């Protein structure tokens, strides 16, 4: 039974590490399915982490922090939308700008307000999202051998934003595939002229997608600062927004595949942490950096078409110009 | 908001639009300063005095300018080919590894041979690391933007691995290589100019600055006065027309990315060979990203890049001095200004062209 416990612990830590990835990946997916390329996921998560930590610390409520994180992230999303949709600017350039803006602003404001090198105060009690124990967790653990343990260790005991992320995944999958809004949104990413001809506002749909993208990045950033950690640290997203971007590509712009990609990248991260300084039988010590590099390397190889084929939305990255 | 691009006189397009967007960016920065309870005017005065008020300040400013010239030119050359290279950080990192290995392994060579070889190694490393994404886009269809983002992270993890496990200084807890031999480094400017009777304080400014000036001229000649430059600009303007004229867009994509990477390697030459004299983690420190702002603001022209690089040099050095006097205003302010400039001069270009157009129309009175 020992290996089951170890497996459960690694799976648990993989899930914790993949929650922010999943939020950001879903965010990127919404934006890109609507034809707006977003490499500013990283910056939006960062500003959300900062805003949520500040408001949670001031108000003592983690939920107030979550709302603040989402609003801050949506604000940056609207900047991106204004540049990319209204002014048809270069979406990559705008994304780079947003990442730099967030990286700089969070440190300056954090330093000016709290003077601890950009950190925010440590969150305690209700100011931080605690573990939610699902019903029957302990009962099932003692009565059902393997699954009970996994239910208690992995499924139960996550924090509220993690469950919200799973909810967001289900909603994303259903809305994109099964609703009129989802169909139109996907159409606007493939052939905006057709949507326009049907009398539906291209800009309206794209703004909608960009706002949803902001809200989801906000959820991911809040999870980092108010659930996983107990406060904001400068540059705490540490490239997660870019791994999420890789996960979107890996998932071929599809929600459920995005979940698997995020879990895979989260598991790699968990394994890298676990293998630090451990010699494997027969192989010896695996350099941690090799495992950390895998998500980036796999994405490059995938994009180059060496494994599978990636088919991004046709109109992604292209501003829509109405013909007159 | 109109669909047609706005026609502006050439001087307004090349000078006024960037100036207006930079001014707007500085106003935003001033608002942030105001928001954290400091006076923007006082901050500006301290910043300018710190950057330009003394020989030492000016030397530091030019040292930072060197970095921005290299990374700005790197982005600009790729822009001319219609490519967006956000991999400057990664290319400079690999260039740093190549330069460090050259300086350490070729140490028995005399300085006159060793230094040029190490500079070439840096350029070669950067070029190779730019060439691969270029090759992948040209032949496999993967977009340079995404590949270079991933390559930045790959370069960073590779450096950690090399410094911790392979070429790190033995017995040191710091992830860095041993210090280079004294003949394997670039000459500091205060020593270079001493024989000419110019007395400068000891600063990080070194002969890489001269290399950066040479790179400005070389890029101008390459882009605007050579066959290859014409081909690069043609592919950037219209790949279809270029192919019709017998220019291979695939080949130009690879060549432009390699040149871009080699220029980014200049950052490693200045930092690793000129200042640190060893390879250490994160020496690129975001210069590669600010290079995007430099190239956008400079409109991709070497003269513009030089002026924009100087502005960021002033902001970096002045910002460092400013943060001594006003600890609340850290140098991250420069990152914010860079971000806003990228947003205004790059993504919101259309908005600012419109603003300038209406300004001019008011000036003409119609």
Describe this structure in words.
The complex is a heterodimer of chains A (324) and B (366). With 324 residues, chain A is mainly alpha-helical. Chain A is built from 13 helices and two strands, in the order H-H-H-H-H-H-H-H-H-H-H-H-E-E-H. A two-stranded antiparallel ribbon of chain A has the order 1-2. In chain A, a hairpin with a 3-residue loop joins strand 1 (279-280) and strand 2 (284-285). In chain A, helix 7 (160-178) crosses helix 8 (180-190). Chain B has 366 residues and is mostly helical. Chain B has a domain at 63-310: ABC transporter involved in vitamin B12 uptake, BtuC (Orthogonal Bundle). Chain B is 74% helix and 0% strand. Chain B has helices spanning 10-35, 40-52, 55-80, 88-105, 111-140, 144-166, 189-192, 208-225, 227-237, 239-244, 249-276, 287-297, 302-325, 332-347, 349-364. In chain B, helix 2 (40-52) packs across helix 13. Chains A and B meet through helix 3, helix 4, helix 11 and helix 13 of A and helix 6, helix 12, helix 14 and helix 15 of B.
